[in-house]
Amino acid sequence: MPSRKPRSAPLYEQIRQLIVAALAAGEWKPGESLPSEAALAERFGASAGTVRRALDELTAEHLVERRQGSGTFVSTHAAPRQPFRFLRLVPDDDAQAFTRELLSCRRLRATAPIALALGLRPAEPVIEVRRLLHRRERPVVLDELWLPEKNFEGLTAEVIESHAGALYALFEARFGVHMVRAQEQLRAVAAPRQAAVLLRVPEGQPLLSVERLAFTYGDRPVELRRGLYLTDHDHYRNDLN
Amino acid sequence: MPSRKPRSAPLYEQIRQLIVAALAAGEWKPGESLPSEAALAERFGASAGTVRRALDELTAEHLVERRQGSGTFVSTHAAPRQPFRFLRLVPDDDAQAFTRELLSCRRLRATAPIALALGLRPAEPVIEVRRLLHRRERPVVLDELWLPEKNFEGLTAEVIESHAGALYALFEARFGVHMVRAQEQLRAVAAPRQAAVLLRVPEGQPLLSVERLAFTYGDRPVELRRGLYLTDHDHYRNDLN
DNA sequence: CAGTGGTCTAGACCACCAT
DNA sequence: TGGTGGTCTAGACCACTGC
C-alpha cells in the first residue's frame, strides 16, 4: 500500500475544500461551468461518486448549481435561481418590486466597530454607500453599507448608478467578489431623526434594524450592512427548520 | 418486464414519504430508534444505498438523528441536539438562560385570523397560553400561543406549571404533537399599553414582533404564536445561506 | 446522438458503540 | 465481538440538454 493518509477529513470533504479554493482563486468564474464529474474525479484521483458527494454539498451551500444534461455551474448573483436570497423583506400582500435611490458613496476611514467586523486594521479606508429602497413611490428601506476599499477599488456613485442589477451582481461582475453567505442581527429600534426624515415617518417610529455581515469564499467578511426597514406593510420572513 | 411504474418521484423520495407517514402514525415515537438501514431496505424492497439517501434527507430536515455505531433515532424536543432551534433571540453578550412565568391558559373560540392560520372552522375551540420569559429578573419576551383544542385536550395551567422542560417537549410527551418546522414573520411595532406594563417598558417602546406558525409531520399547522421581544440587550440572529 | 447529471445497486472496508 | 452508521468504489441504466 502507498503513503499513509493522516485520515483526518473524509475524501469528499477534502475535495470540497479544494474546489472552494479553486473558486476563491477564480479558476472558474460565476456563471461558468465546472469540469464534468468524470473530469473532476480524474483530477482528484477519486471515484465519480465521491466527487458527486462533494458537489452535492456545494450545491446545498449555493456555491454551485447543477443542471441535468448540461453541467455544473458556479453560482452567480447575475442570473440567480432565487432572486431575493439575501433580502428577506416581503410585502404583506402582492409581489415585490423595489426601486433604488442612491444617497451617497464616499471614501472614509473605518471606525473601530466597522474595522472589527470586517477584519481590518483600525482606520483602514472603507467605502460607505447609503441608499433608499422605495416601493410605489414610498421609501421602505434605508440601507448603509461599508466595504473594504482594497477589495472595491474604483467603486463610485457613477459606477453604482450605471448598473441596472442588484448590488451583489455588480460586486461580482466588476470586483470579482461573490457573496456566499451572511449573518444578520435583528432588532426593533426607534427611528433616529435623520432616518425618520428619509423614510418620511415620525421620529421614534419603530423600525426593524438589520445588521448584516456578508462573507465571500473561504468565510472572508467583505461587507457590513445596516438596514432600517419600515414594516408597516412589509415583514421579514424566516423559515425555521 | 413487470408492471409499468408511473415514474413519478424517485424511489428514495417515495421511501422518505413512507417513513414520514410512519412517523406521523406514531410507529416510532420521538427518541426511539428506527430499524437499521438493512432492515428498512428489506421492508421497502430497495438497496441500502437508496434507504440511506432517504434517511439523509430526513436528517437534513431534523426529522431523525443518526448516531454512528448506535442507530437512527426519531428527533425529540426532550433531549435536542440543538437546544434553542426555534428561539432565535440571543443575548448580545453572554449565554442564554430564561425563566418562564405563566400568565394565563384559557379555552376560547378561534377568531377568524387564528382559524385561518390553523386551518380550523370558524369559532372552533382553541387554547390560548400567555407567558413571560425573563432573564436576570427582567422580562424580555411576551409570548401568546393558540393551539387547536382537539389536538391538545387537557392542556391546563397546572399541566404547564408542572412541566420543567420546553413547551415543545411537553407537547410531544403529553399530546404526541412533535413540531417539525415553522414560518416566522417579523416586524417592529410600538408596545401596546398592556404589553408595555408586562415588559416594564414605556408604552410605544419599539418591540420586535414575531409571528410564528408551527407545523407537525406532514406540514399540518398546529400552533400559532405571537411573541413581542425586547431587543435592548438581545437580538434575533439569522443566518442566510 | 454524444455528453451531462440523476438514480439505483452491490459490495468492501472503516469507525464507533454497546455488551 | 457483533451490529450500527460512515466512506468509497465500480458499474449499469435513465433523463435531460444541446448540437
Automatic annotation (TrEMBL), chains A, B:
Q: Does the keyword Transcription apply?
A: yes
Query: Sorted alphabetically, which PROSITE patterns does this protein's record hold?
Result: HTH_GNTR
The record's listing under Pfam families reads: GntR, UTRA
Name the UniProt key words of this record, in alphabetical order. DNA-binding, Transcription, Transcription regulation
Q: Does the keyword Transcription regulation apply?
A: yes
Identify the stretch annotated as signal peptide in this record. none
The cross-references to SUPFAM superfamilies, in alphabetical order and at most eight, read: Chorismate lyase-like (SSF64288), Winged helix' DNA-binding domain (SSF46785)
Q: Which residues form the HTH gntR-type domain?
A: 9-77
Q: Which InterPro entries match?
A: Bact_HTH_transcr_reg, Chorismate_lyase_/UTRA_dom_sf, Tscrpt_reg_HTH_GntR, UTRA, WH-like_DNA-bd_sf, WH_DNA-bd_sf
Q: Which PANTHER family match?
A: MANNOSYL-D-GLYCERATE TRANSPORT/METABOLISM SYSTEM REPRESSOR MNGR-RELATED, MANNOSYL-D-GLYCERATE TRANSPORT_METABOLISM SYSTEM REPRESSOR MNGR-RELATED
Name of this chain's protein: GntR family transcriptional regulator
In which organism is this protein found?
Pelomonas cellulosilytica
User: What phylogenetic lineage does the species belong to?
Assistant: Bacteria, Pseudomonadati, Pseudomonadota, Betaproteobacteria, Burkholderiales
